């Protein structure tokens, strides 16, 4: 699963994220509520692990904003508040589950498995651009109806481009948004993933580069209306 962890205490956030990554989850970390909101707008997540007491924007406010914006991710609140009234407040704000600190990672991962078995509550918006379709709910993508077999990073790159179809996206932005937890990957790794993504489009029948290089700036999706 792709997980956003919003937690201001790095003594909790960093080891928890590492544990989840060892379980093959992709994890981004935001250390305050505003950063959590920005991450949620830049990518689609399956689950958001959300601390209650956050700087800039607290967890309840962020949870409400996420639901008002149509966020489809499951939200699991992580907090030391254990009163029944606090739990009711969190669930009424839009959270799907509630876990009291301190907690064992085994219990958290069990709750993640339980959430993954639920029927999705929110309708997912299929992202399209020309012949490309990407469905965040099923984590599938096609070109001209032909399934694309993408790695996790290739999928994340394509999703990010489709969420910003008219923008030139800098290499720094790609590193910040998609390699937040692995900065040592560097620009060469981005180029490798983009090369593989372009190759898979061509294998599906695309006759031109759908992802253009804007030299000295970054990358963007090609205007398909000018490619016919």
Automatic annotation (TrEMBL):
4-aspartylphosphate sites (modified residues): 51
Start and end residues of each Response regulatory domain: 2-116
Example GO biological process: regulation of DNA-templated transcription
Pfam families: Response_reg, Trans_reg_C
Start-end of DNA-binding region: 124-223
Gene Ontology molecular function: phosphorelay response regulator activity; transcription cis-regulatory region binding
InterPro entries: CheY-like_superfamily (IPR011006), OmpR/PhoB-type_DNA-bd (IPR001867), Sig_transdc_resp-reg_C-effctor (IPR016032), Sig_transdc_resp-reg_receiver (IPR001789), WalR-like (IPR039420), WH-like_DNA-bd_sf (IPR036388)
Annotated OmpR/PhoB-type domain residues: 124-223
GO CC terms, sorted: cytosol; protein-DNA complex
Keyword vocabulary terms for this entry: DNA-binding, Phosphoprotein, Transcription, Transcription regulation, Two-component regulatory system
Gene3D superfamilies registered for this protein in UniProt: 3.40.50.2300, 6.10.250.690, Winged helix-like DNA-binding domain superfamily/Winged helix DNA-binding domain
CDD domains: REC_OmpR_CusR-like, trans_reg_C
Name of the molecule in the record: Response regulator with CheY-like receiver domain and winged-helix DNA-binding domain
Provenance organism: Chamaesiphon minutus (strain ATCC 27169 / PCC 6605)
